[in-house]
């Protein structure tokens, strides 16, 4: 299964549209404009919030909690490193590896690939392609990728 995340440009807060490979809208993502720390709300096409990402403000390195529904599924943490950015997902049992500067990385669980993420270059606004191995992981993978994107943006 493939999802495309496209950032909307010229907005006050973060805004993304998420479509499937056929171009059908799947989700909308909106950032909260005035908040203490970054917050993203993921809504399905009926307007129901299905996932939520929030920044843990008092932290040495960027940390983002990822909720699906009311359940905390994990926390994305930027690990301390000198030369290459490295991220880990606490609580979900997922491993993140790849080239973060190139925005090309994979997420796996117990050695089984969950999602492969690639950024499309030379587009108007950020655009990511998510290749999800199991459709049951769709929402988890989407929320996790959004949290990693927030952490990478915080590093800049």
Description of the molecule:
The chain is mainly beta and 156 residues long. The chain has one domain (2-155): Beta Barrel (Porin). Helices cover 12% and strands 50% of the residues. The chain has 1 helix and 12 strands; from the N terminus they run ββββββββββββα. It has one helix at 138-155; strands at residues 2-7, 15-20, 25-31, 39-44, 49-55, 63-68, 71-79, 86-90, 94-99, 104-109, 112-119, 127-132. Strands 8-7-6-5-4-3-2-1-12-11-10-9 form a 12-stranded antiparallel beta sheet, covered by helices on one side. The longest helix has 18 residues, at 138-155. It is globular.
Compact overview of the structure:
By secondary structure, the chain is mainly beta. It has one domain: Porin.
Point out poorly predicted stretches: none
CATH superfamily caption = LURP1-related
The CATH class: Mainly Beta
Count the E strands: 12
How is the CATH topology named? Porin
Give the oligomeric state.
Answer: single chain
Mean of residue pLDDT?
86
CATH architecture: Beta Barrel
Largest sheet composition: 12 strands, antiparallel
Topology:
Layout: E1 2-7, E2 15-20, E3 25-31, E4 39-44, E5 49-55, E6 63-68, E7 71-79, E8 86-90, E9 94-99, E10 104-109, E11 112-119, E12 127-132, H1 138-155
Antiparallel strand pairs: 1-2, 1-12, 2-3, 3-4, 4-5, 5-6, 6-7, 7-8, 9-10, 10-11, 11-12
Quick tags:
12-stranded antiparallel beta sheet, 156 residues, Porin, mainly beta, 12 strands, single chain, 1 helix
């Amino acid at each position: 299964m493939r999802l495309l995340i496209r950032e909307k440009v010229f907005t006050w807060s973060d805004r993304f549209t998420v479509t499937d490979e056929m171009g059908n809208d799947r989700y909308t993502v909106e950032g909260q404009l005035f908040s203490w720390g970054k917050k993203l709300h993921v809504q399905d096409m009926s307007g129901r919030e299905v996932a939520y990402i929030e920044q843990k403000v008092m932290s040495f390195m960027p940390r983002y909690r990822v909720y699906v529904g009311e359940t905390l599924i994990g926390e994305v943490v930027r690990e301390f490193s000198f030369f290459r950015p490295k991220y880990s997902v606490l609580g979900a049992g997922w491993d993140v590896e790849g080239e973060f500067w190139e925005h090309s990385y994979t997420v796996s669980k117990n050695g089984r690939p969950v999602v492969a993420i690639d950024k499309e270059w030379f587009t108007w606004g950020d655009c990511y392609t998510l290749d999800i191995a199991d459709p049951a992981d769709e929402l988890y993978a989407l929320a996790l990728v959004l949290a990693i994107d927030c952490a990478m943006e915080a590093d800049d």
